[in-house]
Amino acid sequence: MHSSMETGPRQNRPRVIVVCGPTGIGKTRTAIHLAERFNGEIIGADSMQIYRWMDIGTAKPTPAEKACVTHHMVDIVDPDTSYDAARYAQDAGNVIRELHDRGVVPIVAGGTGLYIKALIYGLFDSRPPDPDIRRELEHLADAHGPSYLHTQLTACDPQAAAGIHVNDRFRIIRALETYQATGRPISDHQRKHRFAQPRFATFKVGLTLPREDIYARIDQRVDQMVADGLLEEVRGLLARGYGAELKSMQSIGYRHMADHLIKSVDWEETLRLLKRDTRRYAKRQFTWFRADPDITWIAPSQIRSLQSAIESFLTTGQPIINTQRGANGNV
Fold first, then answer.
1. Is beta strand 320-321 parallel, antiparallel or unpaired with respect to 40-44?
2. What is the pTM of this model?
């Protein structure tokens, strides 16, 4: 492990504990344990838990869990509201400063890596999108599909393309319009931004387990969500007027249930696809978090082993960095 003492104005930055990792691994339970131990409150870092009425498929904290510890950034917008990492960074950042002023430890917990990164570092500044460029790219995506644009992105910015899914229309268009408007790949902008001063001092805990254990947990969680009424939840959202085309309704679980209800996808096939896509999502989460050398990886059951390191971080501002990430951060 490596440590470095904060000096100068950096000492005044709020000290934040981050709990991250793949879906279904126990981030909420771990965050509650830390909040109870260190006088903390939890700030959700989940791009789906922000939506009201989307409870079962997002695995929101239960009423009992919320009774134990205050949770922020959950149930803050309706499913048809546009919300992104920039807005999250602003809203969650305000919560962190408010908790800091009250002497409460902010504990950021979630699996949306982009939200966590934007919260800590902010998002790089770039030229505002050119409406004409955006309109043309949207037209091409409508006509040929996002994979067509992804091929173009691979040609001009292979680094960005490698980190964006071929069906992630929004991020593909964002990368292409940045290149066309500035003449530089979005990865160049991001690389320059990487040296920005973090807004907060952080101690990052990554939760991991052997691959087969994570996949078993995912299968069990999907079965539990279905038993808890996921299909009925999606039926209710559709009845409220939240169409299947919404970004929120295109997420894992909601998309699958909507396809069963609207497109009559076979039920057994629906469950198979839901479990498969959740496993793939967990793998993408690990790929994202493994790129961060500041994360200390542990099994959920080992959280008490970090207690003294966290106490030191909160007391002195010494970030403890695990330099031996190894294969325990893999799926």
1. unpaired
2. 0.80
